[in-house]
Specification:
- Helix 9 (about 160-190) packs antiparallel against helix 12 (about 255-275).
- The protein has helices spanning about 5-25, 30-50, 55-65, 70-85, 90-95, 95-125, 130-140, 145-155, 160-190, 195-225, 230-255, 255-275, 280-305, 315-345, 355-360, 365-370, 390-410, 410-424; strands at about 380, 385.
- It has a single domain, classed as Na+/H+ antiporter like fold, CATH 1.20.1530.
- Strands 1-2 form a two-stranded antiparallel sheet.
- The termini are far apart.
- The chain is mostly helical.
- Helices cover about 80% and strands about 0% of the residues.
């Protein structure tokens, strides 16, 4: 079966899960689809063990055939980030520009270090000889908050404006910075040549500054092109060229495609929305990209749940999965608290800001995609058949599922309390 047909069937399953949820359960769609896909995976595993119906090998082949990391990083991620940028209000972002910048860069670096060194210490305690460089690699891929999860869950709950802009802006921008950290550590761990400090700095500026500059160029060019026509259908089609050809060109230039999509989305969602679209065209813009966002999110979170079918669980995996969740939460709390220690010297913030940014720092498909980039066969415990890829992937999966299902379901009381304090 071709990849196209596979994605067609998966999209249908995701949409039917969303339909059942809307009709009977009324959960947030992202949570419902993730839970539904996990349940489907468990059913397949149970049927396989009872010998009633062996579907695990077929499902595993299908998942691996899709190449999840390529599907996300070089496929749908551009659409989701562009759609996220469209929803950011530029005046609100300007008001929180320093907070967003510090959270996206400094907090990500602090979290990477805390999680990496913490995991190394915990691995020594449970006799899993995972080298420090791989622990730091896990810290790098799990530290950036996932914009897809954050905007799909936290944004729609109506958090106070400053908190909402901080968590949305951070999640959109820290992908680019987090990817640079991940690529650098990945090169040290698996590359033949260790990058120098100057090469690392050059990579950082090329990816980040280049991505922002290219995003500005894309946004300005398409702003004027869209303004030059009054056909709303063609205007919508032109917005599609940004996350398609625009993202591909950014990748070819060696600059950050995710940052370029966010910046261009902000320009189109603010400048072009106000002066480039007719009233009818503006309504179509919101409806069109909302539909694209919902469809891709549905498919993505179904795939996240089904990724579980590719795992071969060992006793040590279960221990690491249990330890990784509190460790990642601790790293998130320390990184947010340290940055807010500096913020509070200049501004007053809602008392619930740190708890919401900690508990609302959700992880999603991006972390799993990065974990799946790790090459197989780098053995850690050969006698058990455990390699680095398996260890990091199962830990990443456990954190992602916990953040979406548990954190996503329980964050609303924190937001309600913040709303109440904001009015006092």
């Amino acid at each position: 079966m071709s990849v196209y047909y596979t994605l067609c069937f998966f999209s249908t399953v995701a949409i039917f899960i969303a339909f059942i949820n809307h009709k009977f359960f009324h959960l947030q769609p992202t949570i419902a689809i993730t839970a539904g896909s996990l349940l489907l995976s468990l059913v397949i595993l149970v049927l396989g063990h009872t010998q009633w119906l062996e579907l695990r090998s077929f499902a595993t082949t299908v998942i691996e055939h899709i190449h999840f990391e390529t599907f996300l990083l070089h496929g749908v991620l551009s659409f989701l980030l562009f759609a996220g940028g469209l929803g950011i209000k530029l005046p609100h972002l300007k008001d929180q520009k320093w907070e967003v910048t510090v959270l996206a860069i400094v907090a990500t670096c602090i979290s990477t270090a805390v999680i990496g060194f913490g995991l190394y210490y915990l691995c020594q305690l449970i006799a899993v000889p995972l080298p420090l460089i791989y622990c730091l690699l896990f810290g790098a891929l799990i530290s950036p908050t996932d914009p897809i999860s954050v905007m799909a869950i936290v944004k729609k709950l109506g958090a106070p404006q400053r908190i909402a802009i901080q968590i949305e802006g951070e999640s959109l921008f820290n992908d680019g910075f987090g990817l640079v950290i991940f690529v650098t550590i990945f090169s040290i761990a698996f590359g033949s040549d260790t990058p120098t400090v100057s090469e690392t700095v050059l990579l950082f500026f090329r990816e980040t500054m280049g991505g922002v500059a290219f995003g500005l160029l894309l946004g300005v060019v398409f702003h004027h092109l869209i303004r030059a026509i009054d056909n709303h259908t063609l205007q919508l089609l032109m917005t599609l060229t940004i996350p398609t050809s625009g993202y591909a060109i950014a990748d070819m230039l060696g600059v950050s495609g995710p940052l370029a999509m966010v910046v261009s989305g902000i320009i189109i969602g603010n400048w072009t929305r106000e002066s480039g679209f007719s009233d009818q065209g503006e309504g179509y813009l919101d409806e069109f990209w909302l539909m694209v966002d919902e469809l891709i999110n549905s498919l993505l979170y179904l795939l996240i749940g089904l990724v579980m079918l590719t795992f071969s669980f060992h006793k040590e995996d279960w221990m690491l999965m249990g330890l990784s969740i509190p460790l990642v939460l601790l790293g998130r709390y320390i990184s947010v608290s340290m940055t807010y220690f500096g913020f509070r010297r200049f501004r007053t913030y809602n008392p619930m800001s740190v708890p919401i940014l900690t508990w609302g720092g959700l992880r999603g498909g991006l972390a799993i995609a990065l974990a799946m980039m790790i090459p197989p066969g780098v053995m850690v415990m050969p006698e058990q058949g455990m390699d680095v890829r398996e260890i990091i992937l199962v830990m990443t999966f456990s954190v992602v599922v916990f953040s979406i299902l548990i954190q996503g379901l329980t964050i609303s009381p924190l937001i309600i309390k913040a709303q109440r304090l904001d009015k006092e």
